[in-house]
């Protein structure tokens, strides 16, 4: 196990530091103190060749704005909040509408744009990078001083274990995710349309023309949204349903089967790489990179639509009439605790 720490620039007068971990068994991960953002994951293919498997900006300065939220820790609440407002204990809270008519991904200056404190813990079997941040009462309009800790454990057996913890002094909302765009082909050789995806999700949530959740829950069977059996991402992505058109591809929350742990499997037959995600969250937002920001990727690769797939494990976003709000409520002094495991390998 190796850990390297390097300065890559400044945000105001704070240093942006990149932590790079190599487990020396086929997994390399780099994470910034800026936004607790994963900037690189490299794994080996069937022939033992390393390649990038998440979209990464060539120019690391782009992580300061990070318009596509590449690898970022997104919060306080991931996804859109309908009309940028919510009520809690009879108080109304108004958020920044940075996503058209909605608020999105924690508002204008979300957790992805903050410098986090970092604590690195090294043992023989794993390296843990713990990121902590205090989000003050009414930051971006959310109530409560919220102490957050997210940690990434890189293990000897090629797992990345992502833990989210939090506690607030007032009732608030908390729904943090990681926003990596995966592409298992290695150095973005191909788009993700030939990757197969399998998820134990029997329902998905309808969206409107602004990408917001309407409150309607739709069974996946006989729809383009059925990934219960392994299916190529490209198979139905150009489908003609209203929901597929509204998203310009997949940009929808999927609900895991009730009483089952969330399981998502992504596989690229050509390289042999797979990723298995297991999560305690009840929902995964699948985003098939339907829009691009035009910024250059590692190895000088041009960014293209469908170059990556986001699998954002989280609570369902808050839709019309505050639907699904109850999932994201964190009561004062209650401990938030969620774990997601990303396992990498070849077959
Ligand atoms: C998210 O659902 C959203 C997309 O609509 C957005 O544009 C992307 O993040 C950057 O997953």
UniProtKB/TrEMBL annotation:
The active site is at residues 179, 312. Beta-D-galactose binds at residues 179-181, 251. GO terms for biological process: galactose catabolic process via UDP-galactose, Leloir pathway; glucose metabolic process. Keywords: Carbohydrate metabolism, Isomerase. Pathway: Carbohydrate metabolism; hexose metabolism. It catalyses: alpha-D-glucose = beta-D-glucose. GO terms for cellular component: cytoplasm. Its EC number is 5.1.3.3. It comes from the Bacteria. Coiled coil: none annotated. It holds the Pfam family Aldose_epim. GO terms for molecular function: aldose 1-epimerase activity; carbohydrate binding. NCBIfam families: PRK11055.1. Belongs to the aldose epimerase family. This is Aldose 1-epimerase.
């Amino acid at each position: 196990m190796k850990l390297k720490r390097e300065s890559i620039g400044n945000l105001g007068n704070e240093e942006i530091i990149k932590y790079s971990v190599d487990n020396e068994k086929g997994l390399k991960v780099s994470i910034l103190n800026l936004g607790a953002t994963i900037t690189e994951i490299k794994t080996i293919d069937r022939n033992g060749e390393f390649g990038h498997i998440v979209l990464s900006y060539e120019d690391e300065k782009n992580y300061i704005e990070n318009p596509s939220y590449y690898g970022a820790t997104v919060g306080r609440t991931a996804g859109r909040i309908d009309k940028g407002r919510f009520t809690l204990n009879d108080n109304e809270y108004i958020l920044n509408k940075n996503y058209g008519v909605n608020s999105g991904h924690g508002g204008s200056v979300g957790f992805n744009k903050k410098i986090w404190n970092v604590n690195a813990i090294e043992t023989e079997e794993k390296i843990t990078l713990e990121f902590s941040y205090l989000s003050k009462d009414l930051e971006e309009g959310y109530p409560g001083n919220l102490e957050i800790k997210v940690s990434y454990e890189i293990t000897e057996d090629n797992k990345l274990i992502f833990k989210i913890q939090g506690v607030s002094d007032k009732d608030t909302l908390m729904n943090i995710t990681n926003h990596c765009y995966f592409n298992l082909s290695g150095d973005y050789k191909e788009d993700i349309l030939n990757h197969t995806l399998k998820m134990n999700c029997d329902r998905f949530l309808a969206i409107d023309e602004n990408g917001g959740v309407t409150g309607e829950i739709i069974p996946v069977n006989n729809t383009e949204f059925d990934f219960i059996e392994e299916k190529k991402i490209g198979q139905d992505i150009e489908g003609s349903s209203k929901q597929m058109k509204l998203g310009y591809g997949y940009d929808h929350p999927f609900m895991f089967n009730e009483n089952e742990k969330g399981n998502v499997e992504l596989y690229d037959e050509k390289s042999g790489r797979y990723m298995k995600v297991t999560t305690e969250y009840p929902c995964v937002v699948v985003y098939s990179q339907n829009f691009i920001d035009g910024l250059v990727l590692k190895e000088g690769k041009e960014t293209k639509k469908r170059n990556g797939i986001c699998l954002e494990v989280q609570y369902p976003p808050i839709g019309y009439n505050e639907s699904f709000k109850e999932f994201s409520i964190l009561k004062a002094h209650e401990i938030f605790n969620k774990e997601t495991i990303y396992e990498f390998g070849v077959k």
